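Notes from the 1:1 (GR / supervisor)

We went over the backlog. Supervisor wanted to see one worked example end to end before approving the batch request, so GR pasted a single chain during the call. The sequence is below; no edits were made to it. Supervisor asked that the structure be written out right there so they could see what the output format looks like.
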Amino acid sequence: MTNNTIKIMLLASTVLGASSLAQAEDATLIIESWRNDDLAIWQDKIIPAFEAKNPGIKVKFTPSAPAEYNAVLNSKLDAGSAGDLITCRPFDASLSLYDKGHLAAVQDLEGMKNFSDVAKSGWSTDDGSVTFCVPMASVIHGFIYNKDAFAEVGVEVPTTEAEFFAALDKIKADGSYTPMAMGTNDQWEAATMGYNNIGPNYWKGEDGRNALIKGTQKLTDEAWVAPYRQLAKWKDYLGDGFEAQTYPDSQNIFTLGRAAVYPAGSWEISGFNTQADFKMGAFYPPVQKAGDECYISDHTDIAIGMNPKSKNAEAAKTFLNWVGSAEFADIYANSLPGFFSLSSHDVKMADPLAQEFVSWRGKCKSSIRSTYQILSRGTPNLENETWNASVNVIKGTESPEDAGKRLQDGLASWYKPQQ
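Structure output shown during the call:
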């Protein structure tokens, strides 16, 4: 080998080394998401904060319409054209992606040390051994109320069920406001903001939910039927025509100041802040009697994972580790009040209504929606069945006991621990 040949080879290796270094430093990450409503927050706040710390990595947030996301994402993944980072829905939708090899395991990332097992439960295998998305946020359920209406009518924030119904009775008797804004037309609200909002106080949160999964409790047990009995009483307070009232109708009735109470998810906060011209407050689901321990639905809602076929794996891991940081937790939670960090970092909320919701974590025990993990994998689907059962009970077309038996029979027809 001549000296010239050696020089040429050294020069080539230097050029190739420089080229590969440039590629390693200059990566562009594409994020897939269904949250097209927060595009501006990603573009104006989240991405600039990350890129300032990681100048070699560019990030593009490319959301799809929420209703189309699952189909669009699956087709992209199958075609090999999906982005580097995948925004993850909780439980089975993302578990299915992991099982198909579309999400990488992330439990060994440094940033994952900032999340508890409950926080990771929405994006872990059934045995908890593998986590495939980094948790971003949860939503908390409770009741948002019109402070002006409460002051006018002269009612206090209720802490027990007796106080809750006494307040609703007084508001109804006054006649100035519909006591509660919720319809049954779209079905899911009756279960999500109804049954799974008040239910954890009856089935004792995670204790009951896990007992149902193990088969040691049944949907015909008192703890699971009793919430339907409370829902049946809601009918008298929902106003005329609630049967045809849609979810947007309910939002408008409340934000226009026509209703005193709104059974809520914390995701409403941002929208309500811009639409309502009255002061709002929030209270957690009233307990059955004074002195009872309170439970809240603090539901794992959104996370982010990595496409195993990403050509920018190291850059993607850098981003995912940053999602586990205090900086991300603060930016995300305060840019989207009502979507609360699932990390162990202490995040102070600037929005008072959001701070009220998140403060309940220090007073009540957190749980997730009862139907979301494992129990809705068969047919009939327990989540969807809970929707129509909640509606039927509120309308009075099905008794709480009959609803519990129908759901139990359906679950037992395919789920072995309940047989």
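Supervisor's comment: The chain has 18 helices and ten strands.
Batch request approved.
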